[in-house]
């Protein structure tokens, strides 16, 4: 299997590249600007799956990148696996971060706005597309730290919580969950989310 990884230079992308190497999957790191449709078309030629762990500076950039990936995947009949955000998951108290108005975000969280609203829009784009896709929302607390336990993945629009009542996952286990989805296609046309048991 051969994949094109958009966002390979990021922290999650690097973890995912490591996991896929263990499975002897060929990873082609996307080089350039994924907002450039022709660049994406060229580099996606001949791959089985287009995978995104990409970050972006604005909601609009997330949308353009996703639209380009959907367009290329449709032309080439390729599957897409997208690593998104947790802000559109329902929490224990039945609220979603994405429902918070932008002007109500605390100053310390304003840097999250592109990802919060961008990934939510991307999920809707996938739901309304006719390509083969999977979308991972991580745990509510998703950190680049050592794993604290094994991970559990499930198709859900609600955040998962472990026996300790915590919604946490490490990038390592996020990468393992993405690799498993790339290989096994367990959550086709679904959003899935993860937690670590500890």
From TrEMBL:
Gene3D superfamilies: NAD(P)-binding Rossmann-like Domain. One of its GO terms (molecular function) is oxidoreductase activity, acting on the CH-NH group of donors, NAD or NADP as acceptor. It comes from the Bacteria. This is Putative NADH-flavin reductase. It comes from Spiroplasma syrphidicola EA-1. The lineage of its organism: Bacteria, Bacillati, Mycoplasmatota, Mollicutes, Entomoplasmatales.
């Amino acid at each position: 299997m051969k994949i094109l990884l958009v966002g390979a230079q990021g922290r999650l992308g690097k973890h995912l590249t490591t996991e896929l190497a263990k499975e002897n999957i060929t990873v082609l790191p996307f080089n350039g600007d994924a907002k450039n449709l022709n660049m994406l078309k060229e580099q996606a030629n001949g791959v089985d799956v287009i995978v995104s762990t990409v970050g972006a500076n604005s909601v609009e950039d997330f949308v353009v990148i996703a639209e380009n990936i959907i367009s290329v995947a449709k032309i080439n009949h390729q599957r897409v696996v997208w690593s998104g955000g947790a802000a559109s998951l329902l929490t224990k108290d039945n609220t979603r971060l994405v429902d918070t108005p932008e002007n109500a975000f605390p100053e310390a969280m304003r840097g999250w706005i592109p990802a919060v609203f961008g990934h939510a829009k991307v999920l809707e784009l996938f739901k309304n597309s006719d390509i083969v896709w999977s979308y991972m929302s991580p745990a509510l607390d998703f950190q680049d730290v050592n794993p604290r336990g094994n991970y559990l993945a499930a198709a859900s629009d609600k955040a998962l919580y472990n026996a300790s009542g915590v919604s946490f996952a490490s990038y390592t286990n996020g990468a393992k969950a993405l690799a498993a989805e790339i290989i096994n296609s367990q959550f086709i046309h679904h959003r899935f989310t993860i937690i670590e048991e500890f």
